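Continuing the batch. This is chain 6 of the set; chains 1 through 5 are on the previous pages. Same settings as before, nothing changed between runs. Recording input and output for traceability.
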Amino acid sequence: MSDDNPLAGGLQGLIQQAGAMQQRVQEAQARAAAKTVWGEAGGGLVRVEANGRMEIVRVDIDPAIARDDTEMMQDLVVAATNAALANARDLMTAELGPLANMLKMSGLGL
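Output for chain 6:
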């Protein structure tokens, strides 16, 4: 068997590789958690900041819409929040690099 074969080291080798992959995933999660991304709606009237832990950390609302249309503001907050969370998922995928595809294919997903 070749060295890049995951079964080359038998069960012990597979366990070691799984442990190394888990460590890399945890490191990627920590890097992503320390970063933030923004999502916006209404051409920037509403902006939402999320971190790599998929937590919303800040909401900026242009005062002009806060006075005018509550229903529109609510819709924009939802849209900006969804955009921020999508960007946070993209951030995690980028931090994981090739591991992201492996997790998707294994059914563990992001």
